[in-house]
Write a structure and sequence with these properties.
Elements lengths: L1 H21 L9 E6 L8 E2 L5 E2 L1 H13 L2 E6 L2 H9 L5 E2 L7 H4 L2 E3 L4 E10 L14 E5 L3 H13 L2 E5 L2 H9 L5 E5 H9 L4 E3 L6 E6 L2 E3 L4 H16 L2 H10 L4 H4 L2 H4 L2 H7 L1 H33 L4 H16 L2 H16 L5 H27 L2 H9 L4 H31 L11 H12 L2 H31 L1
Parallel strand pairs: 1-4, 1-5, 8-9, 8-10
Antiparallel strand pairs: 2-3, 6-13, 7-10, 7-11, 7-12
Helix pairs in contact: 1-13, 2-8, 13-14, 13-16, 13-18, 13-19, 14-16, 15-16, 16-18, 17-18, 18-20, 19-20
Membrane topology: Multi-pass membrane protein
Main location: membrane
Protein name: Glutamine-binding protein/glutamine transport system permease
């Protein structure tokens, strides 16, 4: 029994050591930073038809970095996650069409304002709603954490509407178009760009934005002063020599197809597959990699918990029960945010998104695995243990030679089911910026507004992979029980 426990502990600990090693900063001749962004916020931050991150924000950042002699790694994620990543020191800065407000100044230090914007609101094209007063008793869709959401919240009681929240702009637009909600609020240039690119909305105040304000590049308050100074210095230079105006005009004046692709690329399933094949393939590879690593390590961790759960030691049984109870009862997204955003502020070091994602899978999926492993061992007839002990085997040897082999055979259907669940659960990790298959779909939809076709393709890819995994698992089950 001790050998089994030590083997399992060593395997799980090995991954943790690799994760810790991965967070050590690499030595480089130039300053290097991690910059968080929301890549679903065209024309400021989005992915073009070549799967490159572009937009007003991205071009400004790239130009300044080149001129000021620093490098950076871009981390696309939801807006809320991006700001929290900076606040928890997981990222060094954030550029995501972020409005400068007094509340945010309590948490972040902002650069020189780089864009003047305001809030707009939009309805479906054929909507009868023409004024804010018409929203009374109805529901509006908001992107969580944005200036548009804050403005809508500030006037909610005055105009008597209800609110529902989404994590990205395109989903809130789709909700309005589909009639589930009647309007959405957001930064006016973002709404106008979406309409220009084929989103079937009507902007109600195209020339009269609410709450005009400024966008800024942000770092955690009191941190990364050198990065902030470099951004301000570089921005002053590109503003003076006209580069800034060229960047803004490049996106605001461009034809829709310049960044999104031709109609042939976006108006059919085959066109979307052809023009985005590399993006789908990259997302699928990341999903499979997460799944394979997660399955192996979560299985090892679950076996450890299961063995502990049938140990002679009351302490080990109690520890196993407690761990399973905690991580099986915790929502996976909450656990992912806790590890990626909450934990670094306590331990004082960055945790890579992939490491945080795998740790989330290990703890969550491992808890479920541990529960059915423990149940599988307990389901072996008690007479088996009694017979083994009567033959002179110790408790540990009886477990290894008799109980565990029989229990594992009983658990194979449960393992197959857990493998499939792990594959599907990797989609949740898109919330912390891992570019797996679901996040890939979100970025493509942001660019081409073809939600139905893109999500149909994503669903079909998942279904094919799950079918193949099920066939493989069933083959393994037959081989082990033959």
């Amino acid at each position: 029994m001790k050998k089994v426990l030590m083997t399992l502990v060593t395997a799980v600990a090995a991954f943790l050591m690799v994760g810790v090693a991965a967070v050590k900063p690499a030595q480089a001749s130039k300053p290097h930073y991690i910059i968080a962004t929301d890549a679903t916020y065209a024309p400021f931050d989005f992915q073009d038809k070549n799967n490159q991150y572009v937009g007003i924000d991205q071009d400004i950042l790239a130009t300044i970095a080149k001129r000021e002699g620093f490098t950076y790694e871009l981390k696309p994620m939801s807006f809320n996650a991006a700001t929290q990543a900076v606040a928890s020191s997981q990222a060094d800065g954030v550029i995501a069409g972020m409005s400068i407000t007094d509340a945010r100044k309590q948490v972040f230090d902002f650069s020189t304002p780089y864009y003047r914007s305001g809030i707009g609101w939009a309805t479906a094209k054929n909507s009868k709603i023409k004024s804010l007063s018409d929203l009374k008793g109805k529901t509006v869709a908001l992107k969580t954490g944005t200036a548009g959401a804050q403005y809508a919240e500030s006037i909610q009681s005055k105009y008597g509407f209800k609110i529902t929240y989404f994590s990205d702009s395109d989903t809130s637009y789709r909700d309005v178009i589909n009639g589930n909600t009647v309007a959405t609020f957001g930064d006016l240039p973002v709404l106008q760009y979406a309409v220009k690119n084929g989103t079937e909305l009507k902007v109600q105040n195209p020339k009269d934005p609410f709450n005009a304000g400024d966008y800024g590049f942000a770092v955690k308050k009191g941190s990364n002063a050198a990065l902030l100074a470099a951004f301000d210095k570089g921005f002053a230079a590109i503003k003076k020599d006209g580069t800034y105006d060229k960047i803004v005009n490049k996106y605001l004046d461009a034809k829709a197809s310049t960044f999104t692709g031709s109609a042939a690329d976006n108006n059919s399933v085959t066109g979307i597959l052809r023009s985005n094949s590399s993006a789908f393939w990259h997302g699928l590879k990341e999903t499979l990699y997460l799944t394979i690593v997660g399955i192996i390590l979560a299985t090892l961790w679950g076996l450890l918990l299961g063995v502990m759960g049938v140990s002679k030691s009351k302490f080990l049984r109690g520890l196993s029960t407690t761990i399973i109870y905690i991580f099986r009862g915790m929502p996976m997204m909450v656990l992912a945010f806790f590890i990626y955003i909450g934990l670094p502020s306590v331990v004082g070091t960055k945790i890579p998104a992939f490491t945080a994602g795998v740790l989330t899978l290990i703890l969550n999926e491992g808890a479920y695995t541990g529960a059915f492993v423990r149940g599988g061992f307990n389901s072996v007839d008690n007479g088996q243990m009694e017979a083994a002990r009567s033959l002179g085997l110790s408790h540990g040897k009886a477990m290894r030679k008799v109980i565990i082999p029989q229990g594992l055979k009983l658990m194979i259907p449960s393992f197959i089911n857990q493998f499939i669940i792990t594959l599907k659960d990797t989609s949740i990790l898109s919330a912390i910026g891992i570019l797996e298959l679901t996040q890939t779909g979100t970025l493509i939809v942001t660019r081409n507004s073809q939600g139905f076709r893109v999500w149909a393709i994503i669903a079909m890819i998942y279904l094919i992979v799950i079918t193949l995994l099920t066939w493989l698992s069933n083959w393994v089950e037959k081989r082990t029980q033959a």
